[in-house]
Predict the structure of SIR2 family histone deacetylase.
Amino acid sequence: TAEISPEDRASFTEHLKSSTRVLALVGAGLSAASGIPTFRGAGGFWREYDCMTLATPRAFAKDPALVWQFYNYRRHCALVAEPNRAHVALAELAKKKPGFLAISQNIDGLCQRAGHPPENIQSVHGSLFSSRCTECAYVEHDNFADPLVPAFELPEHVDAADAKFPLKPIPLSALPRCPACRALLRPDVVWFGESLAVDAVARVDAWVRGDSEADGAKIDLMLVVGTSALVYPAAGYIHAARARGARIAVFNMEQPEEEGSTSRLKEGDWFFQGDASKLLPELLK
Ligand code: BJW
Ligand code: ZN
C-alpha cells in the first residue's frame, strides 16, 4: 500500500466530515482482502474458463450445469469468507452518516454481514444467495445451503476451482429446480446484456435525484472503492454524482489503465492507491 500524502489525507478527511450526502460505488476489490477473486485480471478465471464469459446468459443456455457449478463454488467461497476491515469501515460510515448510500456491484453478501444497514446499501448485480425461475416468477432469497443441491456435493479432497479434477456430469434434473413449476432455476444475478432489477435502479436513481431531500440533489462526495468502473450502468453513477457537484475519491490497488471512469479524475478528486482493507479503516474513521 502506497503512502497517503498528508495533504490528501487532510483535504479528504475534512471534506468527508463536512459532507452530508455521500454516495459510494463498490466492486470486487472491496472483497479482495477477504479472499474473493476479482473479475478482471489474474483472478478472473475459474478452472479454464474466463469468469466474464461464464457470467453470461449464453453460457447458461449452453451449459447450465457448468455455470451452476461455478456459482455453487462462489457461494461456498463467500460463505467461508469473512468481511474484511473495508466492509466494516464502510458499514460504520453508513451508520454515522444519515445521507449515505452504497451501490454494491458485489453479490457476496459481505457488506451486509459486516453490519451495513440495509437501508443504506443497494445491490445492483443480484446475490449469490438468491435464485429465480427461468420460466415463472418464483424467486428464492437467502438460501445459504452449501452445496445448494446434493448434486454439487464433492469429495473432501476435490477443489472445484482446479481443472485437474474433472467436473462430474450433472443431469438437468439434478440442478436447482423451481418448487412451483419444476423448471430450471438460475442464479439471481445480472449477467452481461441483462437489465438490472427495476426496483434496484429506481431506488438508486431516487437517492441520486435527492427525492427525499428538502434542499435538492447536491451530492458532496462519491467514494469509488475497488471497482474497475467499466461496467454500466453502475459506473455511470460516478458521472451522475459529479454532475450533482460531487468530488470523487477513488480507492484502488492500481490506477486503471483502461479508459474506465476512474481514470478520468479531475482537480479536487482524490486517488488513494492500495488495498481497500487498509485504506478505508484509515481514511473513513
Ligand atoms: C482492489 C483490490 C484491493 C483489486 N483493494 N482495490 C454503456 C457503455 C458501454 C457498454 C454498456 C453501456 N451500458 C450497458 C453496456 C453493456 C454492459 C457493459 O457495461 N459493458 C462494458 C463492459 C463495456 N452492461 C450490461 O450488459 C449491463 N446491463 C445492461 O446495461 O442492460 C441494459 C442493456 C442490455 C443490452 C444492451 C445494452 C444495455 C449488465 C451488467 C452486469 C454485470 N454483471 C457482472 C456479473 C454479475 C454476476 C456475477 O458476479 O457473477 O457483474 S460482470 C462483473 O463486472 C460483475 C461485477 O459486479 C462487475 C464489475 O466488476 P468490478 O467489481 O469492477 O470488478 P473488477 O474485477 O473489474 O475490478 C476490480 C477492481 O478492484 C480493479 O480495479 C482492481 O485494481 C481493484 N482491486 N484488489 C482495492 N485489495
Ligand atoms: Zn417456476
Q: What stands out?
A: The first strand starts at residue 22 and ends at 26. DSSP finds ten helices and eleven strands in the chain. The chain has a mean pLDDT of 94.
